[in-house]
Amino acid sequence: MFAAVEDYPRTLEEFEARFASEEACRAYLAQLRWPNGFVCPRCGGSKAWPARGVLWHCAGCGRQTSVTAGTIFQDTRSPLTTWFRAMWAVTSQKTGASALAVQHVLGLGSYQTAWTWLHKLRRAMVRPGRDRLTGRVEVDETFLGGLGGAQGRSTATKALIAVAAEAVGHGIGRIRMRQIPDASARSLNAFIGETIMPGSVVHTDGWRGYDQVKAHGYRHRVTFLRGDPARADLLPRVHRIVSLLKRWLLGTHQGAVNRAHLDYYLDEFTFRFNRRRSQHRGKLFFRLVEQAVASGPLPYKRLVQSDHRR
Fold it and tell me: Angle formed by the axes of helices 262-273 and 111-123, to 10°?
């Protein structure tokens, strides 16, 4: 299957003019879901005709399906025009939007609706099979949230996250982040293996949890901490990312992030950061809609359960 053409509005005026109707929104979803024409989810057939206005009737097996079936929009009772405005609000602002802000801007009936929508969109921000980081990559861990101090590198009161950042000259390339249960070699090697291509240079501090990095097919550069363990110049890129992340969580979300859903906030931050150089914010909108139609349905009950994805 060929990738969809990058077709997206550049400005708010373009967005409002283009997506003013349900029909326009459905047509855009169809364009992104089936860039080469309709494909039946049951038999793979390509021949179909419209049925009852919003459905496609497959000529091969007779199944009727909508463009929203099997996506995060499945079974929604809200207009697609409102969903599109939510996605534009989330992607058009560099810092994103909180559930309360989305509720007010869109005039949604409840905070729960806004919260649910944002969490569904966050789950669409990670593209399955995305490329791993390459080249020179800094890796470190840090604690988020909680009260009190940590003993060593384990604590029951804070969430521990691993951060990886590509070194591109003196700057930062792509990043990856996720919550880890502890700073053991097992947890850290699993994170590195999932996020960094073998053969890359992995730059860490001297924590013993990284002792096996070289044995897993990476070149390992170690910088030992001397004096102040918080010195940011030793691993400057990951420390910069952590600083920006904490500022974003406190600024946009007022620190009100449930640990059970933390990974999805990390996904949103990563989605934004890795596209920070996009000339038009509309491209982020395009990517989010594209990935939303490729993501499966996610009922509210699954959203509120403890996060066992990782």
Answer: 60
